Amino acid sequence: MSKSDIYETTFDEDVPRESTNQCPECDGRVTTNAVETVCEDCGLVIKENQIDRGPEWRSFEDDDHTRARTGAPLTATRHDRGLATTIGYGTDGNGNALSGRKRGRFARLRREQSRGRFQSTADRILAHGLGEVRRITSALGLSKQIREQACTLFRRAQNEDLLKGRSVEAIATASVHGTARCNGLSRTLGEVVAVSRVDQSSVRNAYKVLNTELGLPTKPVTPSDFVPRFASALDVSDEIQRRALLFADTAESAEITVGVQPSGFAAACLYKASNERGLLLTQSRVAEVADTSPVTIRAHCESLEEVDG
Asked: Which pLDDT tens digit goes with each residue over 175-219?
């Protein structure tokens, strides 16, 4: 038996085949593979025969304007990177209704598929944690990029065995808070915990573990980052917002914001700016928006008086 009879080659295999033709340049030996016809002596490409495997997109509307890719891209927000498929309900691929026998069959297939989604307990924990991250980022109105980064951070925490002895929900919440800190977003720990399913002390401890073990590149959050969001929540004018930003920038230049809660200092800037412009906001209302106390606002207002004076 010859070597060519061992198996049947497919159309796209790169198998050299000798040709009886000679090179038109040097009369050398010419070989042909699945890509091109080339001279082995001088390297002249005589003929190209590149296989066209088709584009990665297609049009479902029979035009060139509504192009759709053949599948969704990989995502870090799913434990299987988004490669899993689902079994639909009610109709077949042509939109025809299924019979009762086929519906029962697909129900059993759907049940078995659900049981086989997770290969191990680690996959089940990962799916639960990533689902919690998606829920928290959605409740906070964070972007898709932040959601992807938070899910990647949770995956790293699991790979480093940081979930042992700790709540999955706490690590998921800490991952969202840590990602927001790394991107310089004005989200306080209290705001993240408000949409979480664990208490603040558990999230704070989980965040300390992530920050210590993984070395998160967190960015410092300044009072100026909180002023626009608090101004929008209090429905104040643009003039008051600009005045509050001026107070915050002056305080940051004087370095009196070092070691203080930035959200509380931003609330004090808005309170002082509103009083100067004749808008009487109570300290309790401003403190409620900033998730702080009226005592903190009064203390920071005294610091602003010293700088402004």
From this structure: 999 999 898 887 888 889 999 999 999 999 999 999 999 988 888
* Average of per-residue pLDDT values in the chain: 82
Torsions phi, psi for 167 (to 5 deg): -75, 140
List, for residues 46-100, the tens digit of each pLDDT value: 776 555 555 556 555 555 566 665 566 778 888 777 777 777 787 777 778 888 8
Task: Check which CATH number belongs to the domain holding 195 and give it.
Answer: 1.10.472.10
My answer on whether 119 and 211 are in the same domain is yes
For residue 203 the two structure tokens come to 């999230």
Strands (E), the chain: 17-22, 29-32, 36-39, 45-48, 57-59, 67-69
Task: Say whether pLDDT at 19 is over 60.
Answer: no
List C-alpha distances in Å: 59 to 71, 73, 93.
Answer: 13, 18, 17
The count of other CB atoms within 10 Å of the CB of residue 297 is 22
Q: What is the pLDDT of residues 262-277, one digit of tens each?
A: 889 999 999 999 988 8
Domain that holds residue 268: 223-308
Indicate the pairing of strand 36-39 with strand 45-48.
antiparallel
Residue 171 lies in a domain: yes
User: pLDDT band at residue 104, thresholds of 50, 70 and 90?
Assistant: confident
205 and 149 in a single domain? The answer is: yes
**Rounded to an integer, what distance in angstroms lies between the CA atom of residue 81 and that of residue 301?**
50
Q: Is 172 helix (H, G, I), strand (E, B) or coil?
A: helix
pLDDT of residue 53: 54
Q: Which of 277, 79, 262, 274 is nearest to 285 (CA)?
A: 274
Tally of domains within the chain: 3
Return the structure tokens found at 127. 């799916």
Taking alpha carbons only, the member of 234, 131, 144, 139 closest to residue 187 is 139
Q: Where do we find the tokens 């490669």?
A: 83
* CA-closest candidate to residue 77, choices 131, 16, 8, 141: 131
Helix (H, G, I), strand (E, B) or coil at 76: coil
